[in-house]
Amino acid sequence: MCVQRKLNWDPCFANRMAGMQASEIRELLKVAERPDVISFAGGIPDPALFAQSHIRQAYDKILSDPVLARKALQYSVSEGDAGLRAWIATHMASKGVDCTPDNILITNGSQQALEFIGKLFISPGDTALVNAPTYLGALQAFAPNQPMYDDLQLENTNRTISSYHSTAKALGSHVRFSYVVPDFANPTGETMSKEARIKLLDLARGLNIPIVEDSPYYALRFDGAPVRSIQALDIDQCGTIEHARVMYCGSFSKIFTPGLRVGWVCARKDIITRLCLIKQASDLNSPAINQLVMLHLAQTTYDTQVNNAIAHYRKKRDVMLEALEKYMPKGAVWSRPKGGMFIWLTLPKDIDTTAILPKAIAQCGVAYVPGDAFFANKSAKNMLRLSYSLPALEKIAPGIAKLATLF
Amino acid sequence: MCVQRKLNWDPCFANRMAGMQASEIRELLKVAERPDVISFAGGIPDPALFAQSHIRQAYDKILSDPVLARKALQYSVSEGDAGLRAWIATHMASKGVDCTPDNILITNGSQQALEFIGKLFISPGDTALVNAPTYLGALQAFAPNQPMYDDLQLENTNRTISSYHSTAKALGSHVRFSYVVPDFANPTGETMSKEARIKLLDLARGLNIPIVEDSPYYALRFDGAPVRSIQALDIDQCGTIEHARVMYCGSFSKIFTPGLRVGWVCARKDIITRLCLIKQASDLNSPAINQLVMLHLAQTTYDTQVNNAIAHYRKKRDVMLEALEKYMPKGAVWSRPKGGMFIWLTLPKDIDTTAILPKAIAQCGVAYVPGDAFFANKSAKNMLRLSYSLPALEKIAPGIAKLATLF
After folding, report:
1. Which pLDDT score, from 0 to 100, does residue A22 have?
2. Do A258 and B74 touch (CB under 8 A)?
3. How many degrees, rounded to 5, is the angle at CA B173 between CA B170 and CA B176?
4. Rounded to whole angstroms, how far apart are CA atoms B317 and B322?
5. Which of A129, A203, A282, A290 to mutate: most B Cβ within 10 Å?
6. Mean pLDDT, rounded, for A25-46
7. pLDDT tens digit string along A52-109?
8. What angle do CA A367, A373, A377 make, to 5 degrees?
9. Whole-number Å distance between alpha carbons of B74 and A260
10. Is residue A259 over pLDDT 50?
11. Does A340 reach chain B within 8 Å, measured CB to CB?
């Protein structure tokens, strides 16, 4: 009786679920928790940088004040805390994006901003232009909307604007937007030049599409001068954010802590209104208490925290680059990031990084993310992502040395 | 030049956005913030019940402990904190739902659980069975997936199981699931009888569909004995949650505070695995710090807090029921909730509650939610939802008296 009464679930699921698969990063995060593993896998902030006592004081301050505490613990508006939005608007203005709090929506980390943008723009079968490789989490965020992808190529390419259009058209699709991580990209660590950013704006204009600029690592520049954000360059050309085609996703996760889950989107007002409607339907609002704490942290220690993080991660990057130089075999090449958390390693063509990973963990006690995961379309098997952010400084060189024995 | 360069955004949006509209509740929440308005609108907990000092101590305790603090401030697993999931599993077991932490996913309030369930089950054009009226937030959560709706009728009806199937089929659709708020429903305040719950299980079995049981108010029962949850009744019949067709959505928002945004889904493991994948793509994880605080609160003061809330809201309900009796004109009828936060008021047929609302706010300084908002299909205009949870006890009777002058 019981068996006959059981629901057959398989036909119940929406067809969008076919495109959603478990992430390798996620499984690796579990392995990375084992203390005996040196993990170069997740792009995870070093908890040594969390300003625990300052964060504790911020919660205490807010929850000691009866008026603030009621605000912190109640439902709040979907747009996010007005004070935090004002701080972010000023912060964006300092980067050349003249805007108001009405141009800002608070999200649960920038991941949620990507999910909302996917919902707003992608109908099944639409094409998004993304780098190959690109941020895996963006591909996951977009997946429920069943997009197709074309490889965005801006430098050393003979691809024309119309080639993107005709490639999509041949598949019965339309190019809907372009997504980029311009600063110290996840996974490559590379930064788009100003020229590439302007090329991207030209391409977007030609295709009549918006651009998603995802820049959670922007503040973590170790060397050289910042490159103007694509959104700022767009505003330089068209005069106001209300005419701009760029939506900028920012985050406090890599600067202060990812545990409070506070990120934002900056865009023209009517886009923020639409994204806010999506936010409301998704989870009503982000926790007010965490937003108030983040505002306090941003107001009091943003610059200090950024400078600490830069000094801390620069050292780790330097140690990893030195170790790669010392231990990696001939034929291996890697990116030299000027900031952020990632180095992209390309090995000789016959090496399959996905196949080697279990051995790396079991024999060497070292984890990384195989490059495969970061490609929307077909990929090369001989690449991998290394993050230097989490492991202890003194573990980095031994970890790279062990890993190199496998290649 | 600038004008020509502007993006024409209108053709850029996904067609799912057509079904997403701004909520009246949302606009009313803004009005309700004005201190001169007596708001019976939002179903908002009374901040007098927030255990501010206990919550402050919980944050302080976690952030004073170096190991806990690092966990609290770091990225965490998408499923949610293991300790909190274990507490919830035990809590569910006490209500007749024998389950393990693997049957629990933590979400940003139960609103996010509804959004994920919509994503998992609804393809565009699918039919969901919902009460008329039903929770507005569920309709909003499902909207991006472009469902159709049929009115779920369980009592005083001659609708047959096959009539739901044939109604959907005539529209080229399939019935995909049924959604109910069985305890002290939003918006009606009504509770499904055990008989109705068993009828619903029979219906779901006949249609081969799952059931979404959304029960954020369950613990807030003022009178009478609890009715066994639909999920527990389902397990009574089929023996194990792994064969059950019910997904249960719970929340701490109405018991402790909505500001931490902690809710959950309880369901068979493979559904939790799928929902977890959706969670990961949506916002990676809910804030670990808030989950650890909620665990501490649940472990130390769940029963006390529930008892306080019951005593507090029972008084408010009683005052509102008395005031309705005293002031409402002949021909008005209302529900008599045994718990929760809502009373549903039906007025004589010629009264349009949407049209009257601006006058109610401007002339009487009283806010409510017009009934219209809670119907998936066509609605009657002469209904409205009153919430007694937020306004001060002494404001309730005067507010109802003023409101009654309009009818």
Report:
1. 72
2. yes
3. 130
4. 9
5. A282
6. 80
7. 999 999 999 999 999 999 999 999 999 999 999 999 999 999 999 999 999 999 999 9
8. 160
9. 8
10. yes
11. no
Confidence of residue B1 (pLDDT cuts 50, 70, 90): very low
**pLDDT at A23 exceeding the cut of 90:** no
- A179-209 per-residue burial string, b: 16 or more CB within 10 A, e: under 16: bbbbbbbbbbbbbbeeebbbbbbebbbebbb
User: Cis link prior to B187 (omega < 30° from 0)?
Assistant: yes
Nearest CB to A5 within list B15, B107, B205: B205
ipTM, two decimals, is 0.96
Yes or no: say if A263 and A216 are a contact pair by the CB < 8 Å rule. Answer: yes
Residue A2 pLDDT class (50, 70, 90 cuts):
very low
Locate A179 and state its tokens: 């997504």
Residue B18 forms contact with A (CB below 8 Å): no
| In B239-370, alpha helices (H) | 269-283, 288-327, 353-359
Segment 178-197 of chain A within 8 Å of chain B by CB: none
The continuous run of DSSP H or E covering A250 comes out as strand A246-251
One-letter amino acid for residue B244 of the chain: A
Residue of A nearest to B112 (CA): A283
Task: Using DSSP, state whether B369 is helix, strand or coil.
Answer: strand
Question: What spatial distance separates the first Cα and last Cα of chain B, rounded to whole Å?
Answer: 57
- Residue A3 pLDDT grade (very low, low, confident, very high; cuts 50, 70, 90): very low
* Interface check B243 vs A, CB under 8 A: yes
A124-145 tens-digit pLDDT? 999 999 999 999 999 999 999 9
For residue B193, what are the CA distances in angstroms to B154, B182, B228?
Answer: 10, 8, 9
Walk across the sheet containing A369-370 and list its strands: A333-334, A342-346, A383-387, A369-370
Structure confidence at residue A38 (pLDDT): 95
Residue whose tokens read 């050292």: A315
Domains recognised in chain B with CATH numbers: 19-50+303-404 (3.90.1150.10), 52-301 (3.40.640.10)
Q: What is the DSSP letter of B329?
A: P
Report whether B59 contacts A60 (CB < 8 A).
Answer: yes
What pLDDT is stored for residue A4 in this prediction? 47
Helix (H) or strand (E) holding A113: helix A109-121
Residue B286 sits at the chain A interface (C-beta within 8 Å): yes
Q: Which helix (DSSP H) or strand (DSSP E) does residue B328 occupy?
A: none
Three-state SS at B263: strand
**β-pairing, A366-367 with A175-180?**
unpaired
Least confident of A293-302, B13-22, B222-231: B13-22
Across the interface, which of A7, A17, A281 has its CB nearest the CB of B120? A17
Check CB contact under 8 Å for B13 and A274: yes
Residues of B in contact with A293 (CB under 8 A): none
pTM of the model: 0.96
CB contact under 8 A, B259 and A205: no
